[in-house]
Amino acid sequence: MKIYTRTGDEGQTSVIGGRVRKDDVRVEAYGTIDELNSCVGHAAAVAAGGHTGKWGDLVEQLTIIQHELFDCGSDLSYAQPEPEKMKVESAMIDRLEAWIDAYEQETPPIKRFILPGGSEPAALLHVCRTVCRRAERRVVSLAGEQPCPEAVRKYLNRLSDYFFTAARAANARLGVSDVEYERGADVFRRRSSSHE
């Protein structure tokens, strides 16, 4: 099987139900999810390759998330979503929330906004978080113009919270402090996994 098909040379691509321009809002949405999946793969590879014993749970979770991001892209590839064929479901969101709650127990209370970084694993997870936010925005744009499965948007919203909390837990496991935004006031009065 050849990798190249030449069918996209004129700037169009196939979705389930037809062909669209490669800059169509639907393609932009699932393309950004594909970009996010690459970032998650990078974070998982770094976690798997270093700090033996600290990251087994994180690597396992990131691998699950990579498969679920493929599910998100699959669901978005339908020009007209067919409910019985959609793969993203509420149980996936519930699992993310359980992981978030567990990681929160490892982190100190948050008082101020923090800057992405600290340790390398945390920095990569923050990259995942910001790309996830962009993917969510693209899905919101899609939903404003075309049919779009709601579960994908909800999943991405919760996933960005997961990356934020996992990044903080990664720093905590390595004994590295989060870098607080120094010109910010105390804005959090209780434990929180994110600011949205």
UniProtKB/TrEMBL annotation:
It is an enzyme of class 2 (transferase). Keywords: ATP-binding, Cobalamin biosynthesis, Nucleotide-binding, Transferase. Its EC number is 2.5.1.17. The keyword Disulfide bond does not apply. Pathway: Cofactor biosynthesis; adenosylcobalamin biosynthesis; adenosylcobalamin from cob(II)yrinate a,c-diamide: step 2/7. It catalyses: 2 cob(II)alamin + reduced [electron-transfer flavoprotein] + 2 ATP = 2 adenosylcob(III)alamin + 2 triphosphate + oxidized [electron-transfer flavoprotein] + 3 H(+); 2 cob(II)yrinate a,c diamide + reduced [electron-transfer flavoprotein] + 2 ATP = 2 adenosylcob(III)yrinate a,c-diamide + 2 triphosphate + oxidized [electron-transfer flavoprotein] + 3 H(+). Pfam families: Cob_adeno_trans. NCBIfam families: PduO_Nterm. This is Corrinoid adenosyltransferase.
